[in-house]
Amino acid sequence: MKLLVREVIDETLAALKAAGTLSFEAVPSYNIEVPKNLEHGDWSCNVAMVMSKAAGKKPGDIADAIIKGLVDRKSIVVSVEKAGPGFLNFRIKDAVFQAVAREVLKAGKTFGRSQPKSTGKKMLVEFVSANPTGPVHIGHARGAFMGDAISRLLDAAGHDVTREFYINDAGNQVETLGKTVYKRYQQLYGATVELAEGEYPAEYVIEIAKTWKAEVGDAFLAKPQAEWLPAAIAVGIRENLKAIRATLAKAGISHDTFFSEASLHASGKVKSIVDVYKARGVTYEATEGKRREKGEKVRSEDSNAAKFADRQLGGTFLMTATYKENEKYVLKDEEDRIILRADGTPVYLTADLAYHKEKFDRGYDLMVDVFGADHAGHVPRIQSGMTLLGFEPKKLQFVLVQMMRIVRGAEEVKVSKRKGTLFELSDLIDEAGADVCRFIFLMKTANAQFDFDLDAVKTQSKENPVFYFQYGHARCASVLKKAIEKGVPFVGAEALTEAQLGKLVLPEEKAMLKKMSLLGDVVTGAAEKLEPHHVLYYCQELIADFHSYYTKYKSDPIVSADVEKTQGRLAMVAALKHTLASAFGILGIEAPEHMEAPPEED
RNA sequence: GCGCUCAUAGCUCAGCUGGAUAGAGCAUCGGCCUUCGAAGCCGAGGGUCGGGGGUUCGAAUCCCUCUGAGCGCGCCA
Which structural domains are found in chain A, ordered by start? Predict the structure, then answer.
């Protein structure tokens, strides 16, 4: 619908240019939007203001010229008015609104998704990537739902999306896991061994040890560490990943690929990326960490840098901050980073650089990393590292999910892996429901922190907005069901006549049809910005419109004795139902046909 | 000390690439169930968009600065 208005404007401008009325190089990008104020017409356009400079005329004069020379080949316009500082306000014929219903019905549940279905662009979204040392906990939840919704959004926008989980199965943490598993295993055989500081005290490790015992019996009890440790690590990772997948499945999330950090080491890709950097001349050897010059106070005394200073023995550094051969390298890192220790072993960053190189090598048009905000410092290093490999850094985008406080009412809930006081995502979903959790996280932009109130999400109250959404869809379903009961079922898109559609003339009906026509724009925009919440707020508006309409016209109901009008309205309700179902699918929440009555309260 | 992310109604948050009178939910108060689902609707109150400067036809939005909050600043991962 919006495209039709754009067509009119573009053709008018072209005609005015050809006639010499207006002279300009190119039409700058302008907006066509839904005015907030009904008096401002059906669609409002700022083109006259935007092109004021390019055309060398006042906005008002340009607007006048457009109105005077309007080219409306398809005859969709009722009137155009100049208003305010130079807005063009269009009123459009009812038939154009009514056509939206038919269009939606034709597209069905795929309405709003990209047409054509594929843009041919390959995209990778990496998210969750929880360490395989324990279950998915509440701290992962936001990034998990966000990454999933972004994936769904990119998919809806027509891109070819791969969802990836990066498994940090190398390094100290998994080694600690292996040691903990082994101690629990020994305990199962009656040994009195204590967990050391930093080992994982939580219950799930005991379960892993039990599983292990059931599989191998006492086979590893008398073995040396060189034998039991790799086995314990392997079983630990395997079981944790199994649990992680199960939890994610419960949350409606699944990944296409699981990429192992250990496999990078095993295949030699971590070592080889260092050689690549050396060959490109972007490394140097140093005996200690490079800091910014000038001698100003760089860090506080109690920083980790100071605390671990004795471990900083020098090694191979990557010039993530200082390399400046020419201007095409825009490096944002604060300081150069070590990629090989003095003993020649790689660090975490080295593997991560190899991992991202691997992603680039796979040939994606866009790669998205969903990170927790506590990893924000990691971003410029990777960006710099990829830039130094000659990759286009814009192809790699980061969505930083801000921290949230977990609260119960007014009280903050402390969550600590170390103390074993984990709050597992799985438990949260059991208590609150997957849709509710998902909804809470998707309502907010990623980069704003917020308080997650456990009390509020667990009650089926008004503070729990997901029900409002689902009720909107269920109500559409209910109306259609009612029509069947009354013997006037909706005839369907094919049998629907223009006369029936022609009965959709109420301003509320037109407003809803107009809004429905915008789903595709909302999806495209949200996908571009990697912000799913726009889709959610769109649904909220549409549903509010429907509830309001439904209530206002109770005395002139959708299903009435007027068969023609009934069919027209049913077409709109069916279209609305499809629109909502499609949008819900993009968000990943259920679109129920029926909902149970809420618990009684007084 | 430096960097990143924020600051909008009592609370939780939207506000698209600058546009017309800054929105929604919750909470509060007042109404609406004889007819398609009241998990709903209608109405009311509630705002110096953290403060101050600047850019321009026009700023919640862009720039600078100050204040306040969270996160980060390791040869851990």
Answer: 2-92 (3.30.1360.70), 172-257 (no CATH), 466-587 (1.10.730.10)
